[in-house]
Input
Amino acid sequence: MEETLDFSIVDEFFGRFVVEPLARVLFLDAAFWSDQVTVPIVVAWLALGAIFLTLRMGFVNLRAFRHAIAVTAGHYDDPRDAGEVSHFQALSAALSATVGLGNIAGVALAVSTGGPGATFWMIVAGFLGMTSKFAECTLGQQFRHVRPDGHVMGGAMYYLSQGLAELGWARFGKVLAVLFSVLCIGAALGGGNGFQVSQSLGAVQEVVPALRQAPWAYGLLMVVLAGLVILGGIKRIAHVASAVVPIMGIGYSLTCVFVLVWFWERVPGAFAEIFAGAFSPEAVAGGALGVLVIGFQRAAFSSEAGIGSAPIAHAAARTPYPVREGIVALLEPFIDTVVICTLTALVIVITGAWSNPDYAHLVSASKGAALTSAALGEVIAFFPYVLAVAVWLFAFSTLISWYYYGDRCWTWLFGERAIVVYRLLYLGATFLGAVITAENVLAFGDLMLLSMGFPNLIGVVLLSGRVRAELDAYLTRLRAGELPRYK
Output
């Protein structure tokens, strides 16, 4: 009882003195004309930024899609290029941070609170986010630093400080870079770490009930395993991610496809519900606008398009053309949101789990992974065990990748010598994720991660002319057959 009381006190303190004050500051309502619909200003900002960049880049998310697949497959890889990892490894490292519990837990919660219509807006957000990811990862390559020892330093903090300095706004760029770094560290501790531990624990508890009485044991296990990987840096993280991400992504997708085939006669009806709910004024959570907000918010949390995290991983890729890595990066929101999130949403809708009163306690407690587990369990009894393994892999891969993001921002702020402090904080947050309630962890993760989009998109929009010029030059050379192909 004493341990439970102590954890309750920690959770209450975290919610009252950390989450609630931050929410009042960072999640201001942009829908001043409506008392019924809350539109967090950061969600509106990410959506408008994605629309602007999609138009500014001439729908590069469509034009360069086929080339992105060819580059990721290694057809343009030259081992002599500067960098630490291949295009595929950089994509895997970034995907391991995005293809996580946002795809399982976040989507389940989005459909449960916003109705099936939220799925449509998640897909739209993923499509638009492809261009945001392209632009920011191109800039991450353009302003990266390759140190004498071969290690690469890059990310939004570099193009915000240096890129805006080139435009004559050095002080403004430095302020944005510092703000981004602080928010990124917070997002790493919350959404990239604590949220993953909390949600994966919920799914694992469905098949290992003993952990309901000892969540701290799961937290300690994750601390030990994470510590073994993160000490190896980006090369070890990329190596683990390139092995784990394809397995978990394909395995989870096949499980969802099996459910869709099992209930094939319900699939047309599910799509009808999704489209009707996307525009119906009678939809849950305040009508069509409310559903749109939920869809965009969960898609942003899942794909991280526009928030500036992925450029940190993509900066380390070996390539002579920054725009080429940006083209690879645009695949992330497609894989993450358009494909995997849609599969999860369809499973939740087809099984009826999203509106099942028996699962209302899971929704109210923000246990989205457990809700998805329950939905799969309605099809075949052992599916929750499959999902528990998948959830753990999703959570662990995301956790180690987000460590690296926070590591780079901490190093940029305080230098290499102070990194031990960050490591201790990160592993401490890993443990806390197992003992703090899912609602508080989810809220804190949303606050930090989505707010990174404020400073990041300001810089990306201001530097978008530079990105468009390089894109046009690259595509001209590609069409002329001037870019060497090695496979």
About this structure: Confidence is low (pLDDT under 50) at residues 1-5, 283-287. DSSP finds 23 helices and two strands in the chain. The radius of gyration is 21 Å. Strands lie at 145-146, 152-153.
